[in-house]
Design a protein that fits this description.
The chain crosses the membrane at residues 12-38, 125-147, 168-194, 206-231, 238-260. This protein is mainly α. It has two domains: 1-112 and 119-266, no CATH class; 271-329, no CATH class. Helix content is 68%, strand content 2%. It has helices spanning 2-14, 17-61, 66-72, 91-94, 117-122, 127-143, 148-153, 155-161, 166-197, 203-230, 234-263, 269-282, 290-304, and strands at 74-77, 97-100. The protein has a two-stranded antiparallel ribbon. Helix 2 runs parallel beside helix 9. The longest helix has 45 residues, at 17-61. It is elongated.
Length: 330
């Protein structure tokens, strides 16, 4: 019996012009997000490759010993994966590059929110943001009256009098609404899975990405249909579901982030640098002060190369480093 109920829900949804318009809007937004994500991915990968090549060429064109090369430094970039097309994560806030230089502790840089207040205000349009915020809204508008409308129209008791159980009714509504949502998001999920076959990213990760969102939509569908079953009117059901969406998708993340910031505040860069300097000069895990570590290192190198002393004033040229390798390190 639940299959008959599910089929009825599917037919009713596709005969509803409002749902068709909502489906076209979601398809359009997902298409724009996929195209924009693909373009951003290609641009970011090109920029990182060009920057990495430039740094390597600059270092290779100049004759440097290891000590001066360490002070010259370089940049490291966060690796890009195929899933960055659909979910940029926190890169826009934490940055994507890190400068490596001897004796210095740098911070992550190139966070796009520093140069764009639009990202801070509205967030970045991506497949993940559409899946997390807009698709649940479609589920709510699709399911809020699935059971309550039967009660208001007087067909609820008729269905029960004909032998239909409450379990079959509820699961039929859930199955029908979930299939409708799958039809809406199927083109995007198919694109993600097919592209995952031709990317360097593990196909397991891509599959987990898709499965996680399918489970997320199922939870919203079950919650919406059950709310419609509990509420006596469709208006009450819609109000409850919209309130739940506001709480779980908009208000709760901000409150959680605010509580985390107040309970576990991040250190300033100045405080962090002071702690790094303190550990550098005083040691970590009882490994001794800077002077003690230096003497221990010198003794180890002297013993390794079977030499008795270090000439600190006449440094050996780089071409003679095999004879006096320690001179290059001082």
């Amino acid at each position: 019996m639940w299959r008959i109920i599910a089929a009825k829900e599917i037919r009713a949804a596709f005969s509803n012009h409002v749902f068709i318009v909502l489906g076209l809007i979601i398809w359009s937004l997902l298409a724009v997000a996929c195209i924009g994500g693909l373009e951003n991915f290609r641009t970011a990968r090109k920029q990182r490759l060009e920057a990495t090549t430039l740094f390597k060429n600059e270092l290779a064109e100049k004759e440097r010993n290891p000590h001066s090369a360490a002070h010259f430094g370089t940049y490291l970039f966060k690796p890009l994966t195929s899933l960055s097309l659909y979910d940029p994560g926190v890169n826009s806030y934490t940055g994507i590059s890190y400068r490596v230089e001897a004796h210095k502790q740098s911070e992550m840089s190139l966070a796009s929110v520093q140069d764009s207040d639009g990202v801070i205000r509205f967030g970045e349009l991506s497949v993940a943001s559409i899946f997390q915020l807009l698709v649940p809204l479609v589920i709510i508008f699709l399911s809020f009256s699935s059971v309550s409308k039967e009660r208001q129209d007087g067909t609820f008791k008729i269905l029960l009098s004909q032998g239909l159980s409450l379990r079959a009714l509820v699961w039929g509504k859930i199955a029908g609404n979930y299939v409708i949502i799958l039809v809406v998001i199927f083109p995007c999920l198919a694109f993600i899975l097919i592209k995952g076959l031709f990317s360097s990213e593990s196909y397991v990760n891509v599959s987990l990405f898709a499965i996680s969102y399918l489970l997320y939509f199922l939870i919203f569908t079950v919650f919406s249909v059950c709310t419609s079953f509990v509420c006596k009117s469709s208006g009450t059901s819609l109000l409850v579901l919209l309130g739940a969406w506001m709480w779980f998708c908009v208000i709760s993340p901000k409150i959680t982030a605010g509580i985390a910031s107040s309970e576990y505040p991040l250190q300033s860069y100045y405080e962090f640098s002071k702690l790094v300097d303190h550990d550098f000069y005083n040691g970590m895990d009882n490994d001794g002060s800077y002077e003690e570590r230096r003497k221990k290192f010198e003794a180890g190198v002297l013993d390794k190369y079977k030499v008795d002393w270090i000439n600190r004033f006449k440094l050996t040229p780089l071409r003679q480093s095999k004879k006096f390798p320690l001179a290059e390190l001082i």
